[in-house]
Amino acid sequence: MKKLYYLSSAVVAILAFAGHAMDRELDDQRATSALATAVVDPGVVQEESQQSFTSSVYSSEGEQGTCLEILSIQAEQGDLGAQLDLGMKYTKGEGVAQDYAQAAKWFRKAAEQGNSRAQCNLGICYESGQGVDQDYAQAAGWYRKAAEQGNKEAQNNLGFCYEKGRGVPQDMRQAVVWYHKAAEQGHAGAQFNLGVCYECGRGVAQDYVQMIEWYSKAAEQGNAEAQNNLGACYMQEWNISEKTEWTVAADFVKGVEWIEKAAKQGYAEAQCNLGLCYVKGQGVDQDYHKAVHWYQKAAEQGHADAQWGLEILLANGHLGNPQDYGVSA
User: Fold this and answer.
1) Are the beta carbons of 225 and 262 closer than 8 angstroms?
2) What's the CATH number where 144 sits?
3) How many domains does the chain fold into?
């Protein structure tokens, strides 16, 4: 669940067509998992719970209602797992009317008992203003409680708070500290965020070896932004021998492989880049039909560079009538 996207400078380096380089500002906002758009699903209830109904299978509405009644009773009696489950049911509208205020109420009860998942979820409620008044200071406070217990989702989100100055003083060094903690636990979003920090030299010394290492870790877990940025890295040679005695040669084939993985996940930036690869014949055989296919997918998501690339291709007589692709003549 990604909220924000970052365009790697490596991507900018390859965004050129017909001798015209497309200038664009770098968006310094990092992707962050489960911020504002959705509450973290706790999945398996933690050990404090005596019983979980999250994965129960109900044979009838009556049986479901009975189980919800039991769950509510357990939650009222202070059962931490039941409180967490009930919060999720109100969040998703499972067996009950969706009610973010009720969700926040039950997350708070579990959070006050020290449950890190509930603390993180309550932080997200405050971050997004779902069920409570939006309050970045409260969000950061609850993220910190969960992060200090080792909750990787909260660590990543707290890092984002420090990066953007939400509820805490803006501090990129602290952002990197928390991204690093989450990344080391295998959080793909944090690994991507850390890769961006090393690429840009924000909060850490610029280090392309570390950049590629963290992008690779996130990409291997299926993170589309990391796959796109890693692919873009392979589209050029990184001359970094002065600091590390290590150079990464360009590998167009590998670059396209990673960009394609991201494009197939629906990531517009990667779809645009893949279209460009087909236009230029980098890492793939030149193929204008496939270029148009990927440009169009990105353009349908409102990607300006893809819309421009598609228009240029069609205006130059490739593949027929521009109106067939939603492009004005």
Assistant:
1) yes
2) 1.25.40.10
3) 1
